[in-house]
Amino acid sequence: EVQLVESGGGLVQPGGSLRLSCAASGFTFDDYAMSWVRQAPGKGLEWVSTINTIGGNTYYADSVKGRFTISRDNAKNTLYLQMNNLKSEDTAVYFCAKDLNGGLDYWGKGTLVTVSS
Q1: Which neighbouring-strand residues pair with 89?
Q2: Deepest of 19, 74, 94, 117, by most Cβ within 10 A of its Cβ?
Q3: Is 87 in contact with 81 (CB distance < 8 Å)?
Q4: DSSP-derived 3-state class of residue 44
Q5: pLDDT tier at 53, thresholds 50, 70, 90
Q6: Which of 79, 82, 95 lies closest to 32, judged by CA?
Q7: What is the pLDDT of residue 54?
């Protein structure tokens, strides 16, 4: 059974940092690209970032480029999202998701990030 479990969310002040983690199990982690997607309160889903299987290629939404860094540790079956210089508009539930042929076939339950003073 595929499982994706996010952690690391919380309350942070504007300008602060957080690192999200996503523990993966039930599939061969290093065979798949992985993504982060977020959903702000009352809004739709927004793709944030994607990383390829070995971490050599990363992609970011313009809204987070230069502030967020996606990475993965294939030995630990874990995906990360380092978020720096957080803004109030980054407040959202953050989901990690497994890629399949350009789509996202499995999602975690999400972790809430609140950026507020």
Answers
A1: none
A2: 94
A3: no
A4: coil
A5: confident
A6: 79
A7: 83
Amino acid (one-letter) located at 109: K
- In the structure encoding, which two tokens stand for residue 56, read together? 């050599």
Integer angstrom CA distances of residue 106 from 29, 47, 72, 84, 89: 12, 14, 17, 26, 26
Owner of token pair 């290629």: 57
How far CA 19 is from CA of 3, 14, 31, 41, in Å, comes to 20, 15, 23, 20
* Two tokens, residue 74: 């294939």
| CA pair distance 115, 91, nearest whole angstrom | 5
| The pair of three-digit structure tokens given for residue 45, joined into one six-digit string | 């889903």
Is residue 36 within 8 Å of residue 70, measured between CB atoms? Answer: yes
